[in-house]
Design a protein that fits this description.
There is one protein chain. By secondary structure, this protein is of the alpha/beta class. The chain folds into two domains: 95 residues, Urease, subunit C, domain 1 (Roll), CATH 2.30.40.10; 258 residues, TIM Barrel. It has nine helices and 22 strands. The strands form four sheets. Strands 1, 2, 3, 4, 5, 19, 20, 21 and 22 form a nine-stranded mixed β-sheet that branches. An eight-stranded parallel β-sheet has the order 6-9-10-11-12-13-14-15. The longest helix is centred in the first third of the chain and has 17 residues.
Amino acid sequence: MIMRSIYIKNLTVYTETGVLPDAGVVVKDGIIKDISACDDLRPGGDCDVIEFTPKYSLIPGMIDMHVHGALGADVMDGKEESLERISENLPREGVTAFLATTMTGGSGKILNAVKTVKHFSDRVASRGAAILGIHLEGPFISAKKVGAQDPGEIKAPDISLFNEWQNEAGGLIKIVTLAPEEFGALDFIKELKRQGVIVSAGHTDASFEEAVSGIKSGLSYATHLFNAMSGKDRTTPGAAGALLTDSRVTAELIVDGVHLDPSMVKLALKVKTVDGIILVTDAIKTKGLPDGTYTVGCNEVCVENGAALMKNKRPAGSVLKMNDAVKNMINLTGCGMRDIVKMTSTNQAKLLGIFDKKGSIKVGKDADLVVLDENMEVALTMRGGKIVWSGARGEKTTL
């Protein structure tokens, strides 16, 4: 069967090298074939045209590095139907790829979860966002900063256990969140780095010096910076201070108006710059569900007014959508769309080693694309050249 080209035209295109107003992109066979001002583009042959106006922006598909669930589905369910539900929900918010994120739990439960991710990835559902790998959040964390994790299932760093999970996951574990101050953690970090796994500090009570030792050993990422870590509420800088000020560390931010005070978001942007920040949702299974009380992991979680809180009123993940994180980041800091592209796509692709295929709009790269209106609402999401979400804002015609 001959594949028809798709021509997305008359919008502002944020390419890898600059911004093109009143421009268009031609997509065929899942790849970006051409990018240019509309007057210069000649798609040729059979072609579907989707026409917008310059008030719409075309950016690369967003990549969420920290997603636990949505619509009642959780990665820890260990069920392919749960992963499918999460995957199919994400394009509505402009996400074309993500890391399926686990939680601290029993060894068997984590094993089942990572095996299920591998099986699901092998068959690649085309109707939703792609799973790029697994973010193992715990169980090698601190009981002093447990957050919404299960304190009864925390484990000391164990490379044999990790290797068992990684083997069953087919090498899909890309990030491991741990507490670098725990006994044996530094050698564990070194081995993970040797294996090519990104090591992240999170749910940690490390002192500044202990966090620095972790960074020297190969730690290069911060899981939800300032949240569930030492330093935010003390006179000593703690882990947060070390992770914030070290340029070797890329930091996640949950910009939902719940996890971080606006001043902390501005501080992080000022110090880390747009090249060192990754916007994530840390979304849990209650995202997309009505307000109410739910069981998430080992916790009772109340969802109300855009927040998911435990009984102690502390956040239990979020119900944040990625395009809302974009809105919030722009409103809080005044950053521009080119900055947003870096924090939602480019930085992620570079960190995961896939920037040759994803993370920017460039001829030859995967056609993972998102159209946003002036209010940062998603008008269209394309993954691998296929439209996986349409807000019906574009007027589709055929040449």
